[in-house]
Design brief:
- With 380 residues, the chain is an alpha/beta fold.
Length: 380
C-alpha cells in the first residue's frame, strides 16, 4: 500500500505522538509498504526522502490545546501519490486540511483519523469554546473519515457524546511500547547514577509536556509534603511547555527549588537510561488519553503512581501493576509517593507486574497488525 501519515509533529520533534507515529512508520516500511509523512516544520520547510516538512503560517500553544495553521499541506496532498491517508490529532487546524483537500478536489481516497488526545480537564468556559470547535470543524473531519481510531473506551464514549460519531465508526487500538528498547536488563542503574553524579538520593521522575493538563502544580505541592517525610530525593521533570516558568516560580515559593530539576526535552533514545535511574515514575495528570511515558516507565520495570484519568483506570488494577490516585489530590499523591519509596516489597511487586502487563498486552505487533487491517478494509 501507498500510505500517507499526516502528523503535526515528527522526530526530531519530541513527544508521545511524535514517537508513536515514527514507530508506526518504521514498522509499516518494514512490511514493505510505501509510507510518506507530511508534518509541520519547526525550522524551515524541506523534503527529505518521503518526509515532507511544511512551513507553519501560525502557531499557538495554550493550556486548552495547540493550534498549528499549515495550509501548505494542501500542496503536498496534491503531489504525493498515496492510496490512503492516516492523520493524527491533537493539534487543531492540522488534520482538518485532509478533509478540506478531499472536499475541494473531489479526489476519491479514504482517510483514517487517530484521535491522540482529548483534554477533559478544561474550565467550563474553555470546554464550551472547545465544544464549538468539536461540533463544527472537527465534526467535518470525523464525518468524512472512513474510521476514527481512539486508544480508550472513555475516548470512544466522549466522541459519541460530544461529536455525534456513530459507535460502529470508532475503533479502539491502544498505544504500544518497544519493550526491546525499554528493557531494564540493558542498563546498570548504579553505573548510570555515577554518570549523572547521583548517589544516595531517591529519584522521582516525570516525563511529558509542561502544561496545566499534566497536573504538575499538584505534583510540586505533593513534593513539598514528601520533603517532610523523606530528605534525600530529587524530582526530575523531563519536557518543556507553557507552564515551565510558572512551575519554577511555584517550586521556589514552596521552598523545594533545590529538589526539583527541569531537564527540558530529552531525545527519545536517551529516555530508557533516565527511566533506569528512577526509583519511581509519577504521572499526576488531570486529563489523559493513553500516556506513552507511563507505558515506557512500566516497561522499564519502575513503580508508577498515576492519577485515575483516561485509560489508566481501564488497564491498571490499583496496587497490582501501579498505584492510582484521584486527580488533584495533593495529600493522597504525596502519601503514595512516600509509601512506594519506603516499601521495597510493594515497589518491586508493582514494578514487576507493570512490566508484565506492558510486554504482554501493549505490543507493536498487535497495533501495526490491527492498523493494517483497517487500511485494507478502507481500500476494499
Amino acid at each position: 500500500m501507498r500510505i500517507l501519515q499526516v502528523t503535526p509533529g515528527y522526530p526530531p520533534m519530541l513527544g508521545g505522538v511524535e514517537n508513536s507515529v515514527h514507530e508506526l512508520v518504521n514498522r509499516l516500511r518494514s512490511l514493505n509498504h510505501k509510507v510518506y509523512v507530511v508534518t509541520a516544520s519547526p525550522d524551515r520547510p524541506s523534503i527529505d526522502g518521503n518526509v515532507w516538512r511544511m512551513p507553519v503560517r501560525f502557531k499557538l500553544e495554550r493550556n486548552w490545546g495547540d493550534l498549528i495553521f499549515c495550509p501548505s499541506i494542501l500542496n503536498a496532498l496534491k503531489e504525493i501519490p498515496f492510496e490512503i491517508v492516516h492523520t493524527h490529532t491533537p493539534r487543531k487546524l492540522f488534520s482538518e486540511f485532509v478533509a478540506l483537500h478531499k472536499l475541494l478536489t473531489r479526489r476519491k481516497f479514504p482517510y483514517i483519523v487517530s484521535v491522540r488526545l482529548l483534554n477533559t480537564s478544561l474550565t467550563p468556559f474553555l470546554d464550551a469554546f472547545s465544544n464549538i470547535y468539536r461540533r463544527t470543524v472537527e465534526k467535518m473531519l470525523f464525518r468524512n473519515a472512513e474510521t476514527v481510531i481512539v486508544q480508550t473506551k472513555a475516548n470512544k464514549r466522549f466522541l459519541i457524546k460530544n461529536c455525534g460519531i456513530k459507535a460502529e465508526k470508532i475503533e479502539i487500538i491502544p498505544n504500544a511500547v518497544d519493550s526491546g528498547l525499554f528493557d531494564p536488563r540493558l542498563f546498570d542503574p548504579d553505573r548510570i547514577r555515577e554518570k549523572y553524579e547521583i548517589s544516595g538520593d531517591n529519584i522521582i521522575l516525570f516525563a511529558g509536556r509542561l502544561t496545566t493538563q499534566k497536573g504538575l502544580e499538584y505534583l510540586l505541592r505533593a513534593i513539598a509534603l514528601v520533603k517532610r517525610e523523606i530528605q534525600h530525593f530529587k524530582l526530575l521533570l523531563v519536557g518543556k511547555g507553557p507552564q515551565e516558568n510558572a512551575l519554577k516560580d511555584l517550586s521556589a515559593a514552596l521552598g523545594i527549588a533545590d529538589y526539583v530539576f527541569f531537564l527540558g526535552d530529552i531525545p527519545h533514545c536517551r529516555m530508557p537510561e533516565l527511566y533506569s535511574l528512577a526509583d519511581i515514575f509519577v504521572l499526576p495528570s488531570l486529563s489523559e488519553s493513553f500516556p506513552n511515558a507511563m507505558l515506557e516507565a512500566m516497561a522499564m520495570e519502575k513503580p508508577v503512581v498515576a492519577t485515575r484519568v483516561g485509560v489508566i483506570p481501564e488497564i491498571i488494577v490499583n496496587g497490582e501493576s501501579a498505584i492510582t490516585v484521584k486527580p488533584g489530590e495533593t495529600r493522597q499523591l504525596a502519601d503514595e509517593i512516600v509509601r512506594v519509596l519506603s516499601d521495597e516489597k510493594l515497589s518491586k511487586r508493582i514494578a514487576f507486574n507493570g512490566r508484565k502487563l506492558v510486554t504482554t498486552k501493549f505490543t507493536w505487533d498487535y497495533v501495526v497488525g490491527r492498523t493494517v487491517q483497517l487500511y485494507e478494509k478502507a481500500l476494499s
